[in-house]
């Protein structure tokens, strides 16, 4: 069963490296916990998932869309934009640096797919050499309550893209 509109987002801990504009790009800081219920209580957030950092659709379309629309999302009252992937926080930190996410998008690892599994939004990409990953999706959360769920059922970025999310805000 997948997460539905009006559900409470599952309590989960992701891992990320907070943006530090003075950090050396080659630094490898340790990721810290990002506890969703603590961080998103009373806030409006977008959580979008990519099957794999540095993969074509994620790198060329999905993530750049959210980075480019940062101001439009803020103008609609969004407090946090979080990109997750079923990888560790170190990889998501490298991805954030490569795409100059800065403080626009929190790049967080769902290393063991616990959050993605709790949402009911995993897929088996073992045949592609990637193992269990999240589906490509986007969720609008307002004070921990799910207001929109857009899950891609095929290739490409439509229901989980920033244009679909902006239309639902």
List unreliable stretches of 5+ residues.
none
Structural class of the helices, strands and pairings?
alpha+beta
**What is the topology, as strand order, of the major beta sheet?**
2-1-5-4-3-8-9
* Biggest sheet statistics: 7 strands, mixed
Active site: 58
GO cellular component, one term: peroxisome
InterPro entries: PRX5-like, Redoxin, Thioredoxin-like_sf, Thioredoxin_domain
Organism: Rhizopus delemar
Q: Which key phrases capture this entry?
A:
seven-stranded mixed beta sheet; Glutaredoxin; two-stranded antiparallel sheet; 169 residues; globular
What does this molecule look like?
By secondary structure, this protein is of the alpha+beta class. The protein has one domain: 3-Layer(aba) Sandwich (Glutaredoxin), CATH 3.40.30.10. The protein contains six helices and nine strands; from the N terminus they run ββαβααβαβαββββα. A seven-stranded mixed sheet has the order 2-1-5-4-3-8-9. Strands 6-7 form a two-stranded antiparallel sheet. Strand 4, helix 4 and strand 5 form a beta-alpha-beta unit. It starts with 12 loop residues before the first strand and ends with a helix. 38% of the residues are buried.
Helix-strand layout with pairing:
Blueprint: E1 13-16, E2 32-35, H1 36-40, E3 44-49, H2 56-68, H3 70-75, E4 80-85, H4 89-98, E5 106-109, H5 114-119, E6 122-124, E7 132-134, E8 137-142, E9 145-151, H6 162-168
Parallel strand pairs: 3-4, 4-5
Antiparallel strand pairs: 1-2, 1-5, 3-8, 6-7, 8-9
Compact overview of the structure:
The chain has helices at 36-40, 56-68, 70-75, 89-98, 114-119, 162-168; strands at 13-16, 32-35, 44-49, 80-85, 106-109, 122-124, 132-134, 137-142, 145-151.
């Amino acid at each position: 069963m997948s997460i539905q509109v009006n559900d409470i987002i599952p309590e989960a801990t992701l891992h990320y490296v907070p943006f530090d504009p003075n950090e050396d790009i080659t630094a490898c800081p340790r990721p810290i916990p990002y506890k969703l219920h603590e961080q998103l209580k009373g806030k409006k957030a977008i959580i979008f998932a990519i099957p794999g950092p540095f993969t074509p659709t994620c790198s060329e379309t999905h993530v750049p869309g959210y980075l480019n629309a940062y101001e439009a999302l803020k103008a609609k009252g969004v407090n946090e934009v979080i990109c997750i992937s079923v990888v560790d926080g170190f990889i998501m930190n490298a991805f954030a640096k490569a795409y100059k996410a800065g403080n626009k998008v929190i790049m967080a690892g769902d290393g063991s797919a616990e959050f993605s599994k709790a949402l009911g939004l995993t897929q088996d990409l073992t045949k592609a050499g990637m193992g269990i990953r999240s589906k490509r999706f986007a969720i609008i959360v307002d004070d921990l309550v799910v207001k929109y769920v857009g899950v891609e059922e095929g290739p490409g970025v439509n229901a989980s893209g920033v244009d679909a999310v902006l239309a639902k805000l």
